[in-house]
Every structure is written in C-alpha cells, then in structure tokens.
Amino acid sequence: MSGLLPGFADPVLDAQSAFRAVLEAMSRPGRVQRLQRPPSPPAPLCPAAGAVLLALVDAGTPLFLDAGADALEWVRFHAGCPVVGDAAEADFVLAAGVPPRLAALRAGTDEDPQASATLILQVEALEEGAGWRLTGPGIEHEHRLRVVGAPEGFVAEWAANAARFPRGVDVILCAGDAVAALPRSITIREG
Amino acid sequence: MSAAMQAEGYNFAYLDEGTKRMIRRALLKAVAVPGCQIPFGSREMPLPYGWGTGGIQVTASVVGPDDVLKVIDQGADDTTNAVSIRRFFARVAPGLRTTERTAEASIIQTRHRIPELPLREGQVMVYQVPQPEPLFRLEPRRAETRRLHALADYGLMQVKLYEDIARHGRVGSSYDHPVMVGGRYLMSPSPIPSFDNPKMHMSPALQLFGAGRERRLYAVPPYTDVRSLDFEDHPFVPLRANGTCALCGARDTYLDEMVTDDRGGRLFVCSDTDYCGTRQAEAVA
Predict the structure, then answer these.
(1) What does the pLDDT look like over A88-97, one tens digit per residue?
(2) How is A165-183 classified by DSSP, letter by letter?
C-alpha cells in the first residue's frame, strides 16, 4: 500500500469535469477532448484512462482490466469496483494492451441495449483532421480521427459491432490527457 | 449569487456522487443509442414529481461550476417552476451562474419549449419529460412497448395518425408529436408544441431528456436526424397561432394567447420571454 497514488485532487468537481469531456466526446464522435485535471494513475494507465475510470466506475459496475497489479490496486481503492477475470462479464473493460475482441464483450439485448460494455481503450495518440472517416449521429458531415496504435483489424471489428445496432459496444479512446469516443452508432471508413 | 443564499451541508449540485455516476453512465448509453429510453434510479428530489425532477437530476449530473444555467417553463424565464429551479441550483451549486439569456447559457433546462434563438454547439438542452413513452396512450404495458421498440414496430402510431387524418382531415396532435430519431427509435419530444419539432432536427446542441417519475432518460446527440412522424401525402405541418406578437411584432415565433379582460379581449405574445424582450430592446435602441 505504500506506493498507492492519489486519485482526483477534487473528487467531486474533477469527476464532473472528466464526465463532461467524455459526454462531449460521445456526443461528437471523433472530436478529441482534453481533460483539465486528470489524476496521475500508476503505469501503464494514462491520465485520461484513470480519469474516465474514476468518473464512471463504482461498486455497481464490474470492471475488467489488463493493466497489472498496481493499476488494479489503484482503481479498486479509489473506485471500489468489483474486478472480474472475464471481460465478457464486465460493464467496463480497460485495455492497456491488446483489447479483447468487441464481439466477445457484452452487447446488451434489443430490449436493453444499454446493458452493454464500454471499452476504455488506451492508444498511443489521437489526432483530429486525418485518418479514419467517421459518420453518424453527432457528426454534421464527416469527422476525421487518426488513432495511433489502434488494434489490428479494429475497423473490420467495428463494422460488425455497428451492424448489430442498437446492440453493441461503445468505445472510449484515451491517450495521455486526451479522450475521443466511438459510440456504436458510428460508421468508420479507413481514410 | 451571495454566499448567504447558498445551502450548507449538500454536495455540489445536491445529488450524491454515486447517484451522479449512475445517471452519467445512463446518459452516455443514451447518447450512444439516440432516442432509446434508458432506465435510471430516479431519486426523491426536494420538489414533487411533475415539477421537473427528471430534468433536475439530469442537470445536476451534468452541471459544473463553470456552467451558465438558464431554466424556462413554457418559454418563460419568470414563471414559478423556472424561478424555483434556477434558485435551487444557485443555492446548491457554488460558482454556477444563472442567466435568462439563451445566447449566454451553456445548459438550458426546459419545460415544454425550445428557445426561438437557434442553439449552438457547446450548449446542452435538458428537457423535463412527464411521459417518455410515445406509445403510452396506445399500449399501456411497458413490457409490450419495450418489445415494440426492440422490433422498431411502430405501426400502432402510424394507425393512430391515419385515424386522425381520416376523422379530422389532419393530424390531431399540436404538441408531443412523435418523432423518429436516427431512423430507428420512435421518441416523445416531450410535450413541446409541434412548432418546435423541426428545431430538434440536426440541432448543433446536445439534447438530454429526463423523466423522474417514470425513471427513464434519453438523448439526441447533435446533428442527428429527427423526423416528425407523417405520411408522404399528409406531410407534417408545425402548428402556430395565426397572429403577431403584441409586444415585439414577431410573426414567426410561437405565440401564447392572453385574455386581457372579461369582454372577450385577447392578444398574442411570444412564449419565449427572452427572445421577445431582446427584440423589444432592439426596437427601442
């Protein structure tokens, strides 16, 4: 316990500010939001992923994460969430390495599409204006997003994920202190 | 707002953090599935159901100290419901500014109107919703309507509109006219006048809906296709009283009819008090 790092400096207002950034990211897919006051979680978690976890995860949401023992201890202490060993049982999945396949995660049902997993995916960098071409709700014409370090074959997996709308997994991309989101309603074409 | 007016002993924006996280998770799912009703654990609020508890809980989960909040009730900033909700947030959310100006607001909580001034990116509309289920009057069983939404089976509503046209020659609903969101979900726009329905289509603002008594919330992301339900040969026509605002002279706004005496005197005024007041001030200047 000696090395446990702190969470949000202000748990109430920092969580609000992190949530607003995620809400804005989810509402305008492909736009990159910078978090104002993210925490400094243990490696390999990036500050943005730490902020998203502390803002959204708690005792009511089983979490799966692949980020090692320090990260596990940190998120358990600050968020108090149950940690599961099988990604298919988790409400939130944090992937710092190779993520589980989208098809392996909870997708909800046609009657309860909200009972689906949210994948928090750490990548190397997020850049607007180049890369993938995104269309769908939240986007007036087209947003472009370059995701450096996206998992191999992600675009093809995403097409299958979006095809089962309203079922499907939502993805929050994190890099450094930046977040962008891919709600299941979005179509991605390679740029 | 002076410190003396602020309530002590409450968390920022009244709700506890666990409740906020639960509503925030539901809001993110609502944005990801536009128009779909998401259940949430609605809390008791310090005012009765029917006075905007759903909208207040959504606002409380979204709002921060940097926000500027506007609250309207039927378009007006100065009615009881709007004043008391604005005062509530000023007391429990230190730092939050309130305004009556649509252009200045970052969050607009509304009961039954969309402001006349076009919304912009970065603004969040929060609607107070009494009945989130558009099929409620046609199919009262929630288990059944959930299945109809899952199957996108909205024939009931099409038949209802058809019967309106066959009987009355036009669609009968002047408010709460159902819309299709993203071509997938039938959604109640909350009881806004059908005049306001077209403003939802491709709006640059994020639109969130909260129904406290019914414990459901839903959302329409910015730039999302929102079509009022109609037929090719009977297209949707937004209704508006055929008149001119007696105060600002506007001919293109939604009007309230005011009775001025007990001898049948009446006049029309804009329902949006901020828009009307701004126009009057501009006319004087």
Answers:
(1) 999 999 999 9
(2) TTS--EEEEEETTEEEEE-
Q: Is B270 considered catalytic here?
A: yes
pLDDT of residue B7: 81
What residues in A contact B29, CB-CB < 8 Å? Answer: 113-114, 116, 170
Can you give the residue ranges of every domain in chain A?
11-189
| Element housing A18 (H / E) | helix A11-27
Q: Do B20 and A15 touch (CB under 8 A)?
A: yes
Chain mean pLDDT for chain B: 95
Q: What is the distance between the alpha carbons of residues A73 and A1, in angstroms, rounded to a whole number? A: 8
- Mean pLDDT computed over B126-145: 96
HEC per residue, B51-65: CCHHHHHHHHHHCCC
Q: What is the CATH number of domain B3-132+187-226?
A: 3.40.50.11310
Tokens 């309603």 correspond to: A185
* C-alpha separations of A50 from A1, A37, A67, A109 in Å: 18, 11, 11, 29
Q: Is the ipTM of this complex over 0.90?
A: yes
Q: Which of A27, A164, A184 to mutate to test the interface with B (most CBs of B within 10 A)?
A: A27
Q: Distance from CA of residue A131 to its chain's centroid? A: 19
**CATH fold for domain A11-189:** Rossmann fold (3.40.50)
The ranges assigned to domains in chain B are 3-132+187-226, 240-285
Residue owning tokens 């909800």: A108
Between CA B85 and CA A49 the distance in angstroms is 34
Are A40 and A184 in contact by the 8 Å Cβ rule? The answer is no
Q: What's the CA gap between A94 and A20, in Å, rounded?
A: 20
Single-letter amino acid, residue A74? W
DSSP letter for A2, please: T
pTM above 0.90, yes or no: yes
Tell me whether residue B248 is one of the annotated catalytic residues.
Answer: yes
